[in-house]
Amino acid sequence: MDKTIKIYGAGLAGCEAAWQAARMGVKVELYEMKPEKYTPAHHSQSFAELVCSNSLRSDSVTNAVGLLKEELRRMGSLIMEAADATRVPAGSALAVDRDKFSAYITDKICTHPNITVISREMTEVDDGITVVATGPLTSDRMSEYIQRELVGEGLHFFDAAAPIVDADSINMDVAFFASRYDKGDADYINCPMSEEQYNAFWEALVTAEEAQLKEFDKQELKVFEGCKPIEVDAKRGRETLLYGPLKPVGLVDKRVGRTAHAVVQLRRENAEGTMYNLVGFQTHLTFPEQRRVFRMIPGLENAEFLRYGVMHRNTYIESPGKLDVTYKLISRPNVYFAGQMTGVEGYIESTGSGFVAGLNAARGALGLDPIVFPRTTMIGAMASYVAVGGASSFEPMKANFGIIEPWPERVRGGNIAKYEKLAERSLAEIDRIAESLKI
Predict the structure, then answer these.
(1) Shortest CA distance to 322 belongs to which of 347, 341, 345?
(2) How far apart are CA 241 and CA 255, in angstroms?
(3) What is the mean pLDDT of the chain?
(4) CA distance 337 to 356
(5) How high is the pLDDT of residue 290?
(6) Distance between start and end Cα atoms, the chain
(7) Is the four-CA dihedral 51, 55, 56, 62 of positive or negative sign?
(8) Which CATH class is domain 164-308?
(9) DSSP 8-state symbol, 310
(10) CA quadruple 230, 236, 241, 243: dihedral positive or negative?
(11) Do residues 129 and 6 make contact, with C-beta atoms less than 8 angstroms apart?
(12) Domain boundaries along the sequence of the chain
């Protein structure tokens, strides 16, 4: 049996995948198109280049990404080892020295005896075991091959998604369940606005600060049809939203027996009903502005955002039904995907997918059964979301407690107490898996 695997891309996911495979004794050929060719966002020759921020977000296990980081630490993650070795003061967040972080990972990868680094742009996959981790700015030739030969029309090139909030943080004393004209089940949560509330919201929305788009995002935005940020719609006129995403017709609040001046609808995002997205609220406002403005919506004054709205270039697969919970391509079992292309979003989430894909690609090369992480862990919850999706259309997702298997009963003490229980359960499971793998 050939105990060599190929990995395309030396970002965080590709490096993590290479490291996990190599430490199992599998030979790895790591292909990276730098320095011969760069994406529009990358400039350094080093691996695992951090582009958007040097912050890896919260380090507390009562925060979803903090829990994911601790799981990866306990499983022997190279990315987490590098982050802890190069961290800089950032309060409760984990931030790193970007140059030292990338240099640490590059050195570890290049000096590992089981890893051979090859500078080459890859444009196809052969019959050997391969992990594709080419990132959200995958080259045009590789993107075309993936779409043509591997996933068909399930490849997207732009991410335009509405914010998602924690269901428990919605004030149901204000909001109400209903479907328009009472058609079907009352699956939507509706946030009613008076005329005065709507006018205040509209003023805040049209004057809010927008995120700075990179040049390649601006170019993509111009040609992406149907991609209208809600703030752009709002600027067409004070009444425009009342005929669009905030139209109140057919939505009667039976508690008061009338229709509000405007209504914001939230649609269930997963089967358990722990997450809801704001319908029609795709946006490129900054995250702080989204939090400020969208909390002006009655019923969302204390909303906990599991995901903010985004609009940017992002090559990703509509993964449910195409990838399994080990990030393996169902139609081509020798091919794994890792990183943001799978539909995870964020540095640590990409690392987690690289960990699972690299571990299981190596086990495949060794003739071993795959390791499936349960949905009681954040690693497993992310993999399950990618493989199964939610109740609505598939959108890239960051780690959050809305996708992890819920605690079986109501927890007293609020969300922090609930998250503590979920983290304790998760880490006990991770320790069990690490022990079984002798990590």
Answers:
(1) 341
(2) 24
(3) 90
(4) 10
(5) 97
(6) 24
(7) negative
(8) mainly beta
(9) E
(10) negative
(11) yes
(12) 4-159+312-436, 164-308
Q: Please tell me the predicted confidence (pLDDT) of residue 223.
A: 37
- At 429, the pLDDT band (50, 70, 90 cuts) reads very high
* CA 10 – CA 31 distance, rounded (Å): 7
CA distance 344 to 338: 9
**AA letter at 291:** R
Given the structure tokens 């996708």, which residue do they identify?
403
Residue 13 CA to residue 24 CA, distance in Å, equals 17
Burial of 273 (0-12, 13-18, 19+ CB in 10 A): middle
Residue appearing with tokens 């980081």: 69
Select from 3.40.640.10, 3.10.310.10, 3.90.550.10, 3.50.50.60 the CATH code of 4-159+312-436. Answer: 3.50.50.60
Task: Work out the burial of residue 329: count CB atoms within 10 Å of its CB; fewer than 13 is exposed, 13-18 middle, 19 or more buried.
Answer: buried
Radius of gyration of the chain, Cα coordinates, nearest whole angstrom: 22
Q: How many CB atoms lie within 10 A of CB 412?
A: 7
Here the tokens at position 144 are 């075309």
Question: Residue 83's CB: how many other CB atoms inside 10 A?
Answer: 27
pLDDT value at 43 more than 70: no
pLDDT at position 213 is 61
In the chain, the amino acid numbered 350 is S
Residue 189 three-state SS: strand
* Strand order, beta sheet including 305-307: 176-177, 189-193, 262-268, 275-278, 164-166, 305-307
- What pLDDT, in 10s, does the model give residues 225-275? 445 789 988 999 999 999 999 999 999 888 888 899 999 999 888 778 888
CB 136 within 8 A of CB 350: no
- Hey, CA dihedral for 307, 312, 316, 318, is it positive or negative? positive
Residue 428 is encoded by which pair of tokens?
Answer: 């006990």
Contact indicator for 289, 209 with CB cutoff of 8 Å: yes
Which tokens is 312 given? 């940017």
- Tell me the one-letter amino acid at 173: D
| Whether this model's pTM surpasses 0.90 | no
Q: Which residues have C-beta within 8 Å of that of residue 144, sequence separation ≥ 6?
A: none
Residue 309, judged by CB atoms within 10 A of its CB (0-12, 13-18, 19+), counts as buried
